[in-house]
Structure formats: structure tokens, C-alpha cells
Amino acid sequence: MADARLEDVAGYLDEYLRIHDLADAPNARNGLQVENAGSVTRIGAAVDASARTIGEAARLGCDLLLVHHGLYWDGDPRVTARRYRRLKPLLDHGIAVYSAHLPLDAHEDVGNNAVLARALGIEIRGRFAGGVGVWGDLDVKRETLAARLDDVLGRRVHMMLFGPDRTARVGVLTGGGGGLIGEALSAGLDAYVTGEGPHHTHFDAEEGSINVYYGGHYATETWGVKALAAHLAQRYGLPWEFIDHPTGL
């Protein structure tokens, strides 16, 4: 069985994702969040470091779990209650956790935004929203873009069709990007693909005359961890598994 040193894998990820170059939420804690005895033989990839995905990683024999949303979002350092129930199986089964939030969104090769944009047929030409989102050219009917999203995400997207009948300059910012419709407008987009947003963003889209597509927070953020796990698997000759635990949100 192939194996790699955890120290080498984590160090490579830090450099490859440039985790120290992009400002993030303080509790994102990008990088290695939990270590193991020092080796990696099987990689698990999940959107969230939840009790369910950790349990499945243990069942599959993974000793490295790559996640987009890590363990420490609540900022509470105590190892009690839910924190204890997540950490105990990690320690019992020797599973390391590596988390990358905005650095994984923004990466030009394996990032959520770039991978989803390419899956939609968008020719990427630039960035917006602080360099995290990507935009590019796509000349299709706005309903055609919605149908593509339905297909690649495996779910019906929510459309707010207030822009032109055909798209031209389309942006992608996965996850909870609904509050950044203003950034999309500033970038000159006529169509904006993201995961979700609050109620008032309907009027942001309507009054900004832009087509906005909400594909779901979870569904739009499976892309990066899959691409990153596949990249590591190829580099180190390791098997990997995607651990799917959709929230419906």
C-alpha cells in the first residue's frame, strides 16, 4: 500500500493552496487542524467536518480528511459536547484533518469557483469579489445556463432572471455569495452563479438588472475538495473517496 508522510502532504498543501496569502474568517483555521501518527494511506474528501463525515471517513479507513468547512467555526476551544464527539473518532482512528476555506474557493486549478465555471463551459477571463470569484465569457440563453446548472449540480436551481435574455459575462462565487451581488454588478456581470443568499437579495438582483442563480451552498462547494483530493491522489499515488453528506441548503 502506498503511503506518504503527513508532514510532506500538509506542507505541500499549504504551498499549493497559498493558505497564508488570502485573508479569511478568523475561525476558518486554514491548514492542518488535526494530525495523526504521521502517515497518509487513504484520503477522504468532504465539504464539512461533521460527525457524519468523520464517522464515514473512519469506516472507509481514511487517515486524512480534506474539508472545505473545518472544525472550529464557533470559536469555542473547549473539547466538550459536539467538539468532543467529532474529535474522539479522529483521534481513535488516527485521522488527520486538513481544512481550506477561501484558499480552496479561490484556487485557479482546483478551486470551487474555477472547477464549477469550467464545468459550465465558461471561458475564465478574470476575477472579482476580492479575487475569490471568477468570471468569464458564456454566450447562451439565460435559461440554458439554468439547465446546465441543474445538470451539473444534480438539483433544481433557484433563478432570479432580471438581466438580459442571453448571458455574456458570467461570474461564479460558490457558497453563501448572495450578499455579494453588488460585487458582481461592479465587475460588469450580467449573470451570477452562487449558492445561496438572504431574502433581500431578490431585490438586489431585480433592481440591478442581473440574472442570479442559487444552486445551493453545499452543491456548489463539492467541486474543490474532489478536485484537490484527485490532485493529491495523483501526486502521491494514494486512493481517495468523496464522502457525500448533502444538507439540501
- Main-sheet strand order equals 7-8-10-11-12-9
Helix-strand pattern: EHEEEHEHEHHEEHEEHEHEHE
Low-confidence stretches: none
Number of helices: 9
Count of distinct strands:
13
Can you tell me the overall shape? elongated
Instruction: Report the biggest beta sheet as strand number plus sense, adding barrel if it closes.
Output: 6 strands, mixed
The structure class reads: alpha/beta
Strand content: 15-25%
Mean pLDDT over the full residue set: 97
Helicity, in percent?
25-40%
Distance between the termini: 38 Å
Query: Using only CA atoms, what is the Rg?
Result: 19 Å
Describe this structure in words.
The protein has helices spanning 6-17, 51-60, 81-92, 102-106, 112-119, 142-153, 181-186, 201-208, 223-236; strands at residues 4-5, 31-34, 39-40, 43-48, 64-69, 96-99, 123-128, 133-137, 158-161, 169-173, 191-194, 211-214, 240-242. The chain is of the alpha/beta class and 249 residues long. The protein has a six-stranded mixed β-sheet, sandwiched between helices. A five-stranded mixed β-sheet has the order 2-6-5-4-13, with helices on both faces. The chain has a two-stranded antiparallel sheet with strand order 1-3. Helix 2 runs parallel beside helix 3 and helix 5 (112-119) packs across helix 9. The chain is elongated, with a radius of gyration of 19 Å.
